[in-house]
Design brief:
Blueprint (H helix, E strand, L loop, with lengths): L1 E2 L23 E13 H7 L19 E4 L5 H14 L1 H14 E5 L4 H7 L5 E5 H9 L4 E4 L7 E6 L1 E2 L5 H11 L2 H8 L4 E2 L15 H4 L5 H6 L1 H12 L7
Parallel strand pairs: 3-4, 3-5
Antiparallel strand pairs: 1-8, 2-5, 2-6, 2-7, 2-9
C-alpha cells in the first residue's frame, strides 16, 4: 500500500525507528511506550503496594484491580502482549498472561481508557502509555507512573505515502516536514522519545533512561504473527473483554 520514499533528513532517523527497506516505506515520528498508572489513594485504602515489575501484577493482592487495553482494539494492548512474548519467550509469555488474567477486572477497548479509569479511582492499576499517564497526573489525578523493570512494549507513530496518491509532490513535502526539526520539536512536547533522538526532551515523571527500557521490538514478527497471536489471546482471555 505504501510508496518507497527517502525524505529529506532521513539519515537522522536511527534504524529502529524506520522501515528497514531502502528507500523506506514509512518513517517514524515519535514513540509511545507502556506505563502503569497506579492510583496511590485507592491503593492506600486497599493496602495494595506499588508494583515494580510486570510479574508483580500476578500477585493475589492485585486481584480485580488491574485493567489493560484489549490487544485487538488497541495498539497499546497489542504491543503489551507482543512485548511480553518477546521478553519472557512465547511459552513463559502466555504463562505470564494466564497469571495476569486472574487479576484482570476488564480488557478495555482503548489504550488510554485504563489509565483514565485508574486516575478516576475505578481501579488501582491501569496499564496504559506514558503520554496519557502524564496528562492524567498533570490534571491532578493521584497517579504514579510505573515503568516495569523487565522492559516496556512500545510502538511508533509513523508516516508514509499511499501508492495511489494523486498529490505525490505534496505528499513528499509532508513526509519531509514530518521528520524535520520543527516537527520533532512539536512531538517532543508530549512524547519522551522522538525519532531524532538528539531532539528528545525530558518530560516530567518519565525517567531519563526511558529509551533504554524499551524492549527490542521485532515489528516484522509482530505483524506477521498478529492474527495468530490475537486468536490465541482471544481463546484464553476474551471472557473479560469490556462490552463494545
Amino acid at each position: 500500500m505504501l510508496l518507497p520514499f527517502a525524505p529529506t533528513g532521513l539519515d537522522r532517523i536511527p534504524a529502529q525507528y524506520r522501515d528497514p527497506a531502502n528507500p523506506p516505506r514509512w518513517v517514524g515520528m515519535d514513540v509511545w511506550g507502556a506505563t502503569i498508572c497506579f492510583n496511590t489513594v485507592e491503593a492506600a485504602k486497599k493496602n495494595i503496594p506499588k508494583p515494580e515489575t510486570w510479574k508483580d501484577l500476578t500477585k493475589p493482592v492485585y486481584k480485580g484491580q488491574v485493567v489493560m487495553p484489549h490487544p485487538a482494539s488497541s495498539g497499546t494492548g497489542f504491543f503489551d502482549v507482543t512485548a511480553w512474548l518477546q521478553v519472557f519467550g512465547e511459552a513463559e509469555g502466555w504463562k505470564y498472561m494466564d497469571g495476569l488474567h486472574e487479576n484482570i477486572a476488564q480488557y478495555m477497548h482503548s489504550g488510554s481508557r485504563p489509565c483514565a479509569a485508574a486516575a478516576a479511582g475505578e481501579y488501582v492499576v491501569g496499564i496504559s502509555f506514558e503520554y496519557r499517564a502524564n496528562r492524567e497526573k498533570a490534571r491532578g489525578a493521584p497517579v504514579e507512573l510505573v515503568f516495569p523493570k523487565e522492559g516496556l512494549g512500545w510502538d511508533l507513530e509513523a508516516i508514509g505515502i499511499v501508492k495511489t496518491t494523486q498529490k505525490l509532490d505534496a505528499a513528499k513535502s509532508l513526509v519531509s516536514w514530518a521528520i524535520s526539526d520543527a516537527a520533532m520539536a512539536l512531538y517532543a512536547a508530549n512524547f519522551a522519545i522522538v525519532a531524532v533522538p538528539s531532539l528528545s526532551k525530558p518530560l516530567p515523571n518519565v525517567p531519563a533512561d526511558y529509551a533504554s527500557r524499551l524492549v527490542k521490538n521485532d515489528f516484522a514478527w509482530a505483524a506477521k504473527n498478529r492474527d495468530k497471536i490475537l486468536a490465541e489471546w482471544s481463546k484464553r482471555y476474551e471472557s473479560k473483554a469490556a462490552p463494545k
